[in-house]
Recover the amino acids of this structure.
């Protein structure tokens, strides 16, 4: 029987009553100790000394038989000496003592269980956020084609709140530190979708040449600081400028870097990345094909408005809100987006009138 099972037994009032009955009767077994037909039988087997202190002459079934010495091996007779105590258990001479002994044993088991639970909690608390919330995977680098370790946030994170520009705040963890996958061999860095996607051969060749001449490699670390996270974003933006030159992608990378700063409490850096994101979105909306990385042009237009609103540039925000709300089909194609734009519009009216 395990400790947990024993504890469970002792929580049952009927079993406790049975223990008491056993103790009251002197604990003499009524069944073969090894064939447990009842809980009482099990307990009697487990605590023979506690329930039957007067039964010392009764052979203990759990003790192996002592082999009898042969004639030649028989030792010479020794003067009789006092026998040492058979066990460390106290001499339990009364029912009160027996119950006290049992209760003490139960308390000891409970204390051990509590200590084990507390040790497990302390070990969990001592784990770093990276250990708790990220996993290390092997991914094939699209440029050097070697397998590299990359870090990815675990799927299930507890959301605390969402901002107007879709920055999501999570409990005890900032996943934007790990948005960028980076190759530990050649230094190529990009968001997961780009890192795992197909890159044209011509682009690969030119990037390989660039990386040969410029060591851009950042060391692999399992736990990224805010500076690590921002350096990876800056690398990913640089590689986008060197390859696809997509302002839409760069806008999204800048916005994600701004979210990293917001969650890390870096307002000045956040502002820089947000301003760059809004500029890049504006260029991309006029020149590039959408959707980009799952973001539609309507969403990008709304994001421009939300970014300027958060930057307290209400004139620019109003301009982009007008573009969003003048879209005749948005109310039916993306009603939630329309409502969010209308809410910001009303909030700007309230602020500017005050
Ligand atoms: Zn590589």
């Amino acid at each position: 029987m395990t400790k947990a099972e024993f504890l469970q037994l002792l929580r049952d009032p009927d079993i406790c009553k049975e223990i008491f009955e056993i103790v009251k009767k002197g604990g003499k077994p009524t069944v073969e100790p090894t064939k447990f037909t009842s809980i009482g039988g099990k307990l009697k087997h487990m605590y023979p000394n506690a329930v039957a202190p007067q039964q010392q002459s009764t052979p203990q079934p759990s003790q192996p038989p002592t082999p009898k010495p042969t004639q030649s091996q028989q030792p010479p007779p020794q003067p009789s000496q006092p026998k040492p105590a058979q066990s460390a258990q106290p001499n339990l001479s009364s029912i009160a003592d027996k119950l006290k002994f049992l209760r003490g044993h139960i308390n000891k088991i409970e204390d051990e269980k509590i200590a084990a639970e507390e040790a497990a909690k302390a070990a969990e608390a001592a784990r770093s956020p990276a250990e708790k919330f990220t996993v290390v995977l092997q991914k094939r680098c699209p440029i050097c084609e070697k397998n590299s370790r990359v870090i990815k946030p675990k799927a299930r994170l507890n959301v605390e709140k969402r901002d107007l520009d879709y920055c999501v705040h999570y409990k005890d963890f900032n996943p934007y530190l790990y948005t960028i996958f980076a190759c530990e061999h050649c230094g190529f860095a990009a968001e997961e979708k780009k890192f795992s996607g197909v890159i044209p051969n011509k682009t690969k060749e030119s990037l390989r040449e660039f990386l040969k001449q410029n060591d851009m490699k950042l060391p692999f670390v399992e736990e990224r600081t805010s500076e690590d996270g921002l350096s990876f974003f800056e690398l990913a933006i640089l590689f986008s400028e060197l390859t696809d030159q997509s302002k839409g992608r760069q806008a999204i990378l800048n916005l994600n870097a701004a979210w990293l700063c917001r969650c890390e409490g870096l307002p000045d850096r956040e502002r820089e990345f947000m301003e760059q994101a809004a500029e890049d979105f504006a260029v991309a909306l006029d020149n590039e094909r959408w959707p980009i990385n799952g973001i539609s042009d309507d969403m990008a237009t709304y994001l421009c408005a939300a970014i300027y609103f958060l930057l307290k540039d209400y004139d620019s925000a109003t301009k982009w809100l007008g573009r969003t709300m003048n879209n005749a089909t948005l109310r039916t194609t993306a009603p939630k987006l329309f409502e969010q734009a209308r809410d910001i519009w009303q909030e700007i009216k309230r602020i500017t009138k005050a």
